[in-house]
Design goal:
Layout lengths: L1 E5 L20 H12 L3 E6 L21 H15 L9 E4 L1 H4 L4 H8 L4 H4 L3 H9 L9 H13 L3 E5 L3 H13 L6 E5 L25 H9 L6 H8 L4 H7 L13 H17 L1 H16 L9 E5 L7 E3 H7 L6 H9 L3 E3 L4 E2 L6 E3 L5 E4 L3 E8 L1
Parallel strand pairs: 1-2, 1-4, 2-3, 4-5, 6-12
Antiparallel strand pairs: 7-10, 8-9, 8-11, 11-12
Helix pairs in contact: 7-8, 9-12, 9-13, 10-12, 12-13, 14-15
C-alpha cells in the first residue's frame, strides 16, 4: 500500500526568519506514517509547493497569508530535515505537487474546477462559519481541496493520513480518484493534539507548543507544565504505550486495593518518552534530573546563558529593573517587563531577592543571576 501523508509546506509554514518549527501536534500523523513504514508500506510525502501558494483554509476562520515560491522552497527543506526524527525520509517517496500543477494551463484548471460545485465547497465547516460571521471567502481558497484531492490522483494513493480538520480535503481525494477510474483511497484522520494550555490545539502562534527540534531540557520542562487532564491524550498520541498500560499509569479503572501511580510520576514518564524519541534515553534521564533540580529542589539550572552588559550602560553601578529584563532578553518589551515585576515574577542574586517595584534600581555585578518566573534565567557578564 502507498501511504500518502498530505502535510503541505503551507500548513507548517512560519513567517519568521528561521523557517518552520515542527511541533508535537504535527507529529501525530507522522508517527502513524512511521508505523505504516515499519509494516512494509510505501510512504509518500507530498510537499505542496503549489498548494502552499493558495493557502489551506482548514481550521482557519480567515484567509491565510500566501507564501512566495522561495519561502515555500526554504520551508520544505527545513520541514524534511526536522521530520527525519520521525519518518524514514530516505525510504519514503518525496513528491512536490508542482510536478503536475506547474504544467497546468487555464483549460486544465477549468477542468479541475468542473469536478465539484460551489454548494459542495461551501459545505466545509470553515467556509460555513465565515459566511455566518460575515467574513470573506477568497475564490482562490476554493481551489485548495481540489488541488489536494488531485494530489491523491497523481500519486495513486491507497491511504491518506491527516488531522481531523483535513477530512473535507481527504474526501475530495476519494471523489477525484473515483472520477479518474481509480479505487478511492482510505481516509484516516487523527485527533488534533491540544497544546500545553490544555484548551486550544497546539500551535506556535499560541505559544502552547513543544518543538521537535527544541533541546531536551526544554522539551521535558514544557511537558511537565501540561495540565493533568491532558496526560491520557499525550500518552496516546505521542508515545508507543498500549491502551492498557496508559490506563494503568493513569489509574483508570483502578480499585481501592490496586497500587496507584502518582500523577507527577506519570507526567514525568510522558516527558521521558517525548525526550527519548527525539534525543535518546540518556538525554531524557538527564533532562528529568535537571528539571527536578530546578523545580522540585528550587535550584538554578546547570547551564545559565550569559548576557554581556557594558559598564558604560550603568548609572552609579545600577540599572532600572525593567531595562535590565529587556537587556537580558527575559522580556520583549517595557510593558511586559513592568507587568512581570508587578506580578512578583522577578528575582535576583543567590538569595533570590524579589523585585516588586518597576522603578527599582538593581545593582549590577559580574555574574549576577536574574530570573523571570521559573523558566527564564540569565547571568550578567559585565564588560568594561
Amino acid at each position: 500500500r502507498r501511504i500518502n501523508a498530505v502535510l503541505h509546506a503551507q500548513r507548517l509554514a512560519r513567517l519568521d526568519a528561521t523557517g518552520i518549527d515542527v511541533h508535537l501536534g504535527h507529529t501525530v500523523p507522522l508517527r502513524k506514517m512511521r508505523v505504516f513504514q515499519e509494516l512494509g508500506h510505501q510512504a509518500v510525502l507530498i510537499i505542496g509547493n503549489y498548494t502552499a501558494l493558495v493557502g489551506d483554509p482548514s481550521g482557519k476562520d480567515e484567509t491565510r497569508a500566501r507564501l512566495t515560491p522561495d519561502k515555500v522552497e526554504a520551508n520544505a527543506k527545513d520541514y524534511l530535515a526536522q521530520i527525519r526524527k520521525i519518518v524514514d525520509v530516505d525510504k519514503a517517496e518525496v513528491r512536490y505537487n508542482g510536478e503536475w500543477f506547474s504544467k497546468y494551463n487555464f483549460n486544465d484548471t477549468m477542468a479541475l474546477m468542473n469536478k465539484t460545485t460551489i454548494a459542495r465547497i461551501l459545505e466545509r465547516d470553515e467556509f460555513t462559519k465565515r459566511m455566518r460571521d460575515g467574513k470573506e471567502i477568497r475564490l482562490h481558497e476554493c481551489l485548495y481541496p481540489l488541488m489536494q484531492g488531485q494530489d491523491s490522483v497523481e500519486v495513486k494513493s491507497d491511504v491518506e493520513l491527516g488531522g481531523s480538520e483535513q477530512l473535507f480535503n481527504l474526501m475530495m481525494g476519494r471523489n477525484l480518484q473515483a472520477d479518474a477510474a481509480q479505487e478511492p483511497q482510505i481516509c484516516m484522520t487523527l485527533p488534533i493534539l491540544r497544546g500545553m494550555d490544555g484548551a486550544q490545539k497546539m500551535g506556535k502562534s499560541l505559544g502552547n507548543y513543544v518543538g521537535v527540534g527544541e533541546p531536551a531540557n526544554e522539551q521535558f520542562a514544557k511537558t511537565m507544565s501540561i495540565p493533568d487532564e491532558l496526560m491520557q491524550e499525550w500518552f496516546t498520541l505521542l508515545t508507543d504505550r498500549s491502551t492498557e498500560e496508559i490506563k494503568r499509569l493513569l489509574n483508570i479503572g483502578a480499585g481501592e486495593d490496586d497500587t496507584k501511580v502518582h500523577p507527577m510520576d506519570a507526567k514525568k514518564l510522558i516527558g521521558r518518552d517525548v525526550v527519548s524519541f527525539y534525543h535518546g534515553s540518556d538525554a531524557a534521564v538527564a533532562a528529568q534530573s535537571e528539571w527536578e533540580r530546578r523545580f522540585s529542589q528550587g535550584q538554578d539550572p546547570t547551564e545559565i546563558p550569559e548576557v554581556v552588559i557594558a559598564a558604560a550602560e550603568l548609572v552609579d553601578g545600577g540599572m532600572v529593573v525593567t531595562k535590565l529584563l529587556q537587556k537580558m532578553q527575559l522580556a520583549k518589551s517595557g510593558n511586559e517587563a513592568r507587568q512581570k515585576v508587578v506580578e512578583g515574577a522577578v528575582t535576583i542574586g543567590p538569595d533570590r531577592m524579589k523585585v516588586g517595584d518597576p522603578k527599582a534600581i538593581v545593582a549590577i555585578s559580574d555574574g549576577l543571576i536574574v530570573r523571570l518566573g521559573s523558566r527564564k534565567i540569565g547571568r550578567v557578564k559585565l564588560a568594561s
